[in-house]
Write a structure and sequence with these properties.
The complex is a heterodimer of chains A (about 775) and B (about 190). Chain A has 20 helices and 30 strands. Chain A is α+β, with helices and mostly antiparallel strands. In chain A, the strands form seven sheets. A seven-stranded mixed beta sheet of chain A has the order 4-6-2-15-12-13-14. In chain A, helix 9 links the parallel strand 17 and strand 18. Chain A is globular. A five-stranded mixed beta sheet of chain B has the order 2-1-5-3-4, sandwiched between helices. Chain B is about 30% helix and about 15% strand. Chain B is built from six helices and five strands; from the N terminus they run H-E-E-H-E-E-E-H-H-H-H. Chain B starts with 19 loop residues before the first helix and ends in a 5-residue tail after the last helix. In chain B, helix 3 packs across helix 4. The longest helix of chain B has 14 residues. Classes of the chains: A alpha+beta (about 775), B alpha+beta (about 190). At the A-B interface, helix 1, helix 3 and helix 17 of A face helix 2, helix 4, helix 5 and helix 6 of B.
Chain lengths: ~775, ~190
């Protein structure tokens, strides 16, 4: 087992903490000793209460049903609390493409939709209360498949049809329901191509299955609402709740876990599922107001799997590609049916932009149709928004075209990919902020040793008994960092030289609790984090820094801190300069000191802080520039073994190459690469899918056992993370961001390696099950491949 | 204290449990009794019903929230505790069954006044190996690793995988966990 990092960094400044491989995750000890209190763990004593009312939900199992009856008489008589749509303020709709109340009126639209919530004084009482509410549903016709739902005559979910109107993507703003991109002449290019491929690919439904369910505690005291929640965007939740209750923002506080100081603010994974105020958070606040007591919602694993915030959504892709003998991909044509669930709006802009940004193909025609169905609540983020799907389609199809043209898959991608020489979005015409390609791609290819491993299309690189080895590659070009709300942050220097940095961003596992103070400390020239704390994700202590998502929190926190550090200099250096007998402009932070340009004058950071009569706070506000395209390039390479007797797949080597700019928290970045591969990407490729019974629409496997999250038994033998530490011209220390980029393009790399091991047999859907592999082996043997 | 006993809020669920119509056949199923549990070397009293699971008693009555309950159905291992040195899923272990046995939780390591040496070595090795990300599965991972090293002081990689196979991590810290366990084994000198 081995693992290493390498980089092809050019000459960059020397840092004390940025990129330092000896810096450990700062909150790790709290998390492995039971000191960290997550929202799901909160007991009354943690929040100054003596008891809670526990909330649970009553759900409808059908994909769509008329709510015939919700009779709470018995539950109310027994002293339980019950809320239905009638208890909710009619004006308080959840906004979006299909505005709706937190509880439906008259009809349900997806399996597991909640129709009422109950409150009881114990968690066991919740179960009892649910049993005392008499509910009756009349199942209605439903449609689960997006393409089917888009056809005339399909079950109409909404008046006016199943294609949502102008939707709203939380990352990019309003978008039309059908997105089309067209340039060049695709049909002519296909007609004159030397080779074309046509394929139909399917990506299934997923739920997040984060380890900590989406819990919250709500309490009203003195007309002020406080929510402790497993949440990645507390300022958005605060805003939604203030709107719902029509109260000022300063009477609503939302915290991640116990709150933002060093003792709290922990979230047990988020993946886009914990952004803002979910229906249950609103309902807990409504119930808390009604009963005059603190209410805790701690969903069961089953509740959590019947999700209502977002899902990794199914897409069906019809792809046609064409190319010429010289290895040029001349045509790219695609029609995508994007299943956005019952309440989802248009979704697919990120997916489309990945296609036309990744390759220089001159003739492009792509259409994405978002369609409402009864399959699930709504499409949304799960580590990315549609980009895992897009890269699976694109990189499997591109591999097929390269094979048909008989060109090495690495060579074909290198020849057609967008690089720093052409780093402009072909549709928006915006220049990329920074782009390290083909550096990141080449780093990964070299580290993997592709040229000595790839033996030809469909030719296993090794055969030993019944075990066949194959290799595969996928290119990456993903949209990152374009979420618009500005990021604010502050750095406070106390008179004893201790430092507190403030950001609205949370740490849901990605390492922000370490990454953010590293950057604040580095801007102040500090050599250690010992005297630096970070207050996060608490609307009573921090100001909004946008959502902790979209691989942009490193950039957002860092840029705000960079401005805050400049603001500190403005306030502090004149005082220091007077003491040293120089001018403020002659001073800078360096290695734990404040020093003059020629190095002759110096004072320690601590002594300089002692010159202050009171703590000072530097303030930063970073507005995301909209005149650039934020893209991340890279490559993922996989070597694996397939046992053709059993269908067992064992991954022997994985190499990731990413163009994420300067790496800030080195250990965390490498951990992200590992986890994105085998914790999530490998699962999406080989095991995971939220299954629905085709005859009833009900979910079959809403639990950890049957959803098949990878275990330690499936880890690869080796994982190598490589970076092209291209210094991004905008990001802090030249950083871009990493979180989503470690997942995108994993699945096509694995699938292409499977094809390579199995005589060129292709796979057109995920997950690739053992049965799919056994079928491919049989076909390959039938064709005489082995 | 919280949760397991009814009627903290006056009138709400006052007839709890709702199975009162059938409770007559065995009222003792719901009778609250005082039990003593030995947790991390300390004897603690708890008021429990026979149906109460250990995970809930630890978390809600004894305030030991380090033990997590991610799935509550023996699938993920996040609730793993040691009973007399062996790993158990506390989500499906009746609290009354744990009487008379030594319970070790994640709080019994480096933050305890009397740390379990193996657990402390595991926690110490976890830090430089970055073996936790979001952390919500990690109490279970750390306890499973402790149980493994108590029974097998020098595990091979395959033995580590087998020993840790009952614990899911959605962040994907598994490779880091393997190296952390190897480091802990080395630090313990290969003796349990």
């Amino acid at each position: 087992m081995s693992s290493s990092s390498s980089s092809s960094s050019s000459s960059t400044p020397t840092y004390n903490l940025v990129g330092n491989t000896s810096v450990n995750r700062r909150d790790i000890t709290r998390k492995i000793t039971g000191s960290a209190v997550y929202a799901y763990d909160i007991n009354p004593s943690h929040v100054g209460e003596t008891s809670f009312v526990y909330m649970g939900k009553i759900t409808c199992p059908y994909p769509s049903a008329q709510i015939v009856k919700i009779d709470a008489t018995k539950a109310l008589a027994a002293g339980y609390v019950v809320l239905t749509a009638q208890d909710l303020a009619a004006f308080s709709m959840i906004s979006g493409a299909r505005p709706h109340l937190p509880l439906p009126e008259g009809q349900t639209y997806y399996p597991g939709q909640m129709v009422a919530v109950v409150g009881a004084s114990t968690t066991d009482g919740v179960e009892d209360a649910i049993g005392l509410v008499d509910v009756e549903f009349k199942p209605l016709p439903y449609v689960l498949d997006a393409e089917e739902a888009s056809q005339p005559g399909a079950v109409q979910i909404w008046p006016g049809g199943n294609i949502p109107g102008a939707g709203f993507n939380p990352e990019t703003g309003p978008v039309p329901a059908t997105l089309s991109v067209s340039y060049g002449d695709v049909d002519a290019a296909l007609a004159s191509a030397d080779a074309t491929i046509t394929t139909t690919l399917n990506f299934p439904l997923h739920q997040h299955f984060e380890m900590e369910p989406r819990a919250c505690v709500a309490s009203w005291k003195n007309n002020t609402l406080t929510i402790w929640a497993s949440n990645q965007y507390v300022h958005s939740a605060q805003s939604t709740l203030a709107n719902y209750f029509r109260v000022p923002l300063n009477t609503v506080t939302v915290k991640s876990g116990l709150g933002g100081n060093e003792g709290g603010g922990v979230v047990g994974m988020a993946l886009g599922d914990k952004s803002g105020a979910a229906e249950e958070m609103i309902l807990a606040a409504v119930m808390a107001q009604k009963v005059g007591a603190a209410v805790k919602y701690g969903p069961t694993r089953f509740d959590q799997a019947l999700n209502n915030t977002s899902a990794k959504f199914p897409i069906k892709a019809y792809m046609t590609l064409g190319g010429t003998k010289d290895g040029t991909m001349t045509a790219m044509k695609g029609q995508f049916y994007v299943n956005v669930g019952a309440y989802g709006g248009s979704n697919g802009s990120d997916s489309l932009s990945d296609f036309y940004n990744a390759y220089m193909t001159p003739n492009v025609e792509l259409t994405s149709t978002s369609v409402n169905t009864n399959a699930f609540a709504q499409a949304g983020p799960m580590r990315d928004v549609g980009e895992s799907q897009a890269h699976f389609f694109m990189e499997v199809a591109v591999d097929m075209l390269a094979e048909k043209l008989g060109i090495d898959p690495v060579q074909f991608r290198l020849q057609n990919m967008r690089t720093s020489a052409n780093a402009v979005d072909p549709v928006s015409k915006l220049p990329y902020t920074g782009f390290g390609e083909p550096g990141a791609f080449n780093n990964a290819v070299t580290a993997f040793g592709w040229s000595s491993k790839f033996q030809g299309w469909g030719v296993a690189s090794a055969v030993s008994g019944t075990v066949r080895t194959g290799v595969g590659i996928a290119l990456q070009n993903s949209a990152k960092g374009s979420i618009i709300p500005p990021s604010t942050g502050q750095i406070q220097v106390n008179t004893d030289g201790s430092v507190v940095c403030y950001t609205g961003l949370t740490d849901h596992g990605a390492g922000g609790n370490t990454t953010f103070p590293i950057m604040a400390a580095e801007y102040l020239g500090l050599t250690s984090l010992a005297n630096v704390t970070c207050v996060q994700s608490d609307t009573s202590l921090t100001t909004s820094s946008s959502v902790t998502a979209g691989s942009q929190s490193t950039r957002n926190a860092g840029m705000a801190f960079s401005m805050a550090a400049a603001d500190l200099k403005r306030q502090w250096f004149p005082i220091v300069a007077a003491k040293l007998g120089t001018t403020a402009s002659n001073l800078s932070f360096s290695n734990g000191n404040i020093v003059s340009a020629d190095g002759t004058l110096s004072i320690s950071f601590k002594d300089a802080a002692a010159l202050l009569s009171a703590p000072i706070t530097g303030v930063g506000v970073f507005s995301v520039p909209t005149n650039v395209a934020w893209r991340v390039g890279g490559a993922k390479l996989v070597e694996l073994q397939v046992d053709i007797e059993t269908g067992d797949v064992h991954i022997t080597n994985y190499v990731s190459g990413l163009d994420i700019g300067k790496v800030i928290f080195a250990k965390g970045a490498e951990s992200q690469v590992r986890g994105g591969f085998y914790g999530m990407g490998m699962g999406e490729t080989l095991y995971q899918e939220l299954l629905q019974d085709p005859t009833t629409g009900s979910y079959i496997n809403p639990n950890f056992h049957d959803f098949r999250v990878p275990t330690i038994m499936e880890v690869p033998d080796a994982v190598t993370a490589t970076w092209d530490e291209y210094v991004d011209p905008i990001g802090p220390f030249g950083a871009k961001g990493i979180g989503e980029n470690v997942l995108i393009a994993v699945s096509p790399a694995i699938v292409n390696a499977l094809s390579n091991a199995l005589g060129g047999q292709r796979f057109d859907h995920l997950p690739v099950s053992r049965q799919d592999i056994m079928n491919a082996i049989a076909k390959a043997q039938e064709a005489g491949a082995f | 204290m919280v949760g397991l006993r009814p009627q903290q809020i006056s009138g709400m669920g006052a007839t709890s449990p709702s199975v009162s119509s059938t409770a007559a056949f065995d009222a003792s199923l719901f009778a609250i009794q005082t039990i003593n549990l030995s947790v991390n070397g300390t004897t603690m009293a708890a008021q429990v019903q026979p149906r109460d699971m250990l995970v809930n008693v630890l978390r809600e009555q004894l305030g030991l929230i380090g033990t997590k309950r991610p799935c509550n159905r023996m699938e993920c291992g996040g609730c793993t505790v040691l009973i007399d040195g062996k790993p158990y899923y506390s989500c499906t272990l009746l609290a009354i069954r744990a009487q008379g046995h030594q319970i070790l939780t994640v709080e019994g390591g480096i933050t305890s006044k009397t740390p379990d040496p193996v657990l402390a070595a595991v926690q110490t090795a976890w830090v430089p190996n970055d073996a936790s990300q979001c952390g919500y599965c990690q109490a279970g991972q750390v306890m499973a690793a402790t149980a493994l090293l108590k029974s097998n002081p020098n595990p091979t990689v395959d033995e580590i995988k087998a020993g840790m196979s009952g614990n899911l991590c959605r962040c994907g810290t598994y490779l880091n966990i393997i190296s952390a366990i190897q480091q802990a084994a080395q630090a313990l000198g290969g003796s349990p």
